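Methods: holo model generation. Sequences were used as deposited, without trimming of termini or removal of tags, and paired with ligand SMILES retrieved from the corresponding compound records. Each pair was processed once, and we did not select among multiple samples. The sequence and flavin-adenine dinucleotide SMILES for this entry were:
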Amino acid sequence: MNFQEYLDNFRSTLETVFSSSASLANIGVERGMPPLVMRDILECRPLSVFIPEEYNGRGGYVKECLSVLGTASYHSLPLSLMIGINGALFLQPLSVYGQESTKQRVFERFVNQGSMGGLMITEPSHGSDALKMQTYYEEHDGQYRIKGLKHWAGLTSWADFWMLTARRKDANGDLVRDIDFFIHDSSNNGIEVLEMYKNLGLYMLPYGKNKINVTVDSDCRLEPRTTGVTMMLDILHRSRLQFPGMGMGHLKRIMDEAIEHCKNRFVGGTSLFSYDQVKSRLSKIQSSFTVCSAMCAYTTENAPIEADLSRSDLSANAIKTVITDYMQEAGQSLLQLVGAMGYRMDHYAGQAIVDSRPFQIFEGSNDILYQQISESVLKSMRKLKENNLYNFLRGNSLTEQASGYLKNSMNFEVDVKMAQRKLVELGKVLGRAVSLNMVIQLGEKGYRSDLIQAAIENLCAEIDSLLSAYKYEAQPAIVDGYEEDSDWTRFV
Ligand SMILES: Cc1cc2nc3c(=O)[nH]c(=O)nc-3n(C[C@H](O)[C@H](O)[C@H](O)COP(=O)(O)OP(=O)(O)OC[C@H]3O[C@@H](n4cnc5c(N)ncnc54)[C@H](O)[C@@H]3O)c2cc1C
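and the model returned the structure below.
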């Protein structure tokens, strides 16, 4: 089947399952996924795009992967995340770093039996500081025994396979600094679900806390090219670069819902669509769609499965933070436009807000990634002995085309000793500068010029407003022990 036929079949299946019977309207309101719906979706083999051709997959072409993610997220963001977890956090790492015998065994199960896989990194005591994880492994008789506690892994209790991360315990009983990845077959037991979490959104997906006590064969260990940490960066950057795949359908759906609603809702005798403030909101949502399209094009051309992305921190972190902020903002804006009816659990607007919110937290909290974007740029500037931000942006391939729009606003010297909050604010600016560059590049390829123009204008306005926050010098303090003299009733 050629790709277009395959995608059309997937799309029409989703249209059917997400619109047909009354019970299916509850997807998103009730937890889990009705087995028959799951069966219909898996029959379209959406995960095959992430599997190499030699193992009977569609070949792992990034354009196909992003198209499948976008098609899914138009109907259901949780479904798209489910496909994304399997693809970016399990199948792609296995393709790149798996040993041959394991690849044959595991891919066969995905292709012929509809198996699923997830990734466990996070621990209750180590989330953002994942490198300090306490899950450890020891080698005995050619096998690895892995023990620890993991939580919040997508597909908890569902996945047929797990990618487990752990640190080696050395002869002194200390954990080494590096991280290793192992494939575990759930049918071999050893993962005990201690608790299922009541996640706020993403009802389709199960999350919880797992006690790990498993033994895997030596061929289940992923083989890093250099260190395990470098392998982890490659895996996480590849995944972050593919977030726009999940963002694409989500933003298109919000745009379609918002335009449809505003054209048909009459307030004060005229359709919402004619109010200027409404147009401003719609234009921002539409620009998010355009930026997301530009990011998909960038990822397709720059992140093929063969590429080592361990050093692509700037592009990966810029894409992940900006698109997840846009996904959340678009949901908030849709709910504002829809008004009270949007504030129902079974309305798309409310669901879009709770479902997209954790994207700003997982795979690197946006607060931390924005800081890292600034640190990465400041490090490069130091190396080049360049203090002027505009000069740097003009010379960097990720921002050179955008720099023409930023000459007035970014032509200043950067103070390298910045407070963390300033690093975060500057990171937001830089993330949008990188996004602007991608939009300009998409425009040069012949994409609709009116959409490109509006996205450029919205991005420039956003950059200006973020820059004024960055340049504002006061750093208000948090008052610890604030109770004394802070009860207003005593002052009237
Ligand atoms: C829906 C969902 C799905 C997930 N899926 C997976 C999965 O499939 N596999 C998996 O392994 N994990 C998964 N996670 C876990 C996720 O990756 C972690 O929640 C994330 O890494 C943050 O860790 P934490 O929750 O422990 O927060 P913490 O590390 O406690 O951080 C909380 C907040 O503190 C602030 N903060 C932390 N450190 C700093 C710092 N250095 N500077 C400034 N501020 C800081 C940030 O605002 C941050 O958001 C998922 C989480 C959610 C909510």
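Residues 85, 118-122, 127-128, 152-154, 199, 202, 358, 361-363, 365, 367-368 surround flavin-adenine dinucleotide (CB under 6 Å).
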